[in-house]
Amino acid sequence: MRKVILYIAMSLDGYIADKDGGVEWLTGQDKEAENEDTYSEFIKGIDTVVMGRTTYDQVREELSPEIWPYEELTSYVITHKNEGSTENIKFVREDPCELTERLRSQPGKNIWLCGGGSIIQPMVRDNLIDEYHISVIPSILGGGILLFGKGEKEIKLRLKYAKTSNGITELVYERR
User: Which of 17, 61, 82, 169 is such that its CA lies 20 to 30 A from the CA of 159?
Assistant: First the structure.
C-alpha cells in the first residue's frame, strides 16, 4: 500500500505561512549559504501530490509562475470551485481524507501531502499520514497558518532521521 507523506517546512513556532499567507521567510540562517537539497531524493518515491487550492495558487502565481513544477506527477487540487482538469492536474471537490484513502488503495508510488493547513489538519486528526518530513526554519512568525492546529488526540511518532544544515532542521518521523 502506498504511503501518505507530509513533506513541508514550518517556522519554529509551527506556522507554514505568515499572516499574509506568504512564504518569503523559508530560508536558512545565512542567506548566502546553499541549503541542502532533500527534495530531489524525496520526489523519486512520489507520483501523486495532494494540495489545497490556496497552495496551488501560490505555486502557480508566486513560487513557479513559468512552469508547473510537478509536471511528472499527478496533482490533485482540492477546491470548491468548478474547474476543468488536465491530464496531470485534477481539480476535485472531495474530502481530503476520503480522497487520500482512495488514492492510497490504488497502485503507484507514495503520495505527497503538500499543503495547506485545511488539507493537512484533518489528515493529522484522522491519523492518515504515514511519514512526516518537516523542515523547521529558523524563524518565529508569531502568527499565520498553523501546520497542526488544535489536536484532538495524541499521535505517537518514531524519529527516523534528523539533520541540520544552515540552521534548518529536517525531521522525519513515522507513525508508531
Answer: 17
CA distance 174 to 51: 21
| Element of type H or E holding 91 | strand 89-92
CA trace torsion 84, 86, 90, 93 (10° rounding): 10
pLDDT of 52-75, one tens digit each? 999 999 999 989 999 999 999 999
Q: Which of 1, 8, 2 is nearest to 132 (CA)?
A: 8
What the chain holds in terms of domains, given with CATH numbers, is 4-20+37-175 (3.40.430.10)
Report the DSSP beta bridge partners of residue 62.
Answer: none
CA distance 89 to 106: 17
Cα(137)–Cα(133) distance, integer angstroms:
13
- 148's CB contacts (< 8 A; 6+ apart) are 14, 120, 121, 124
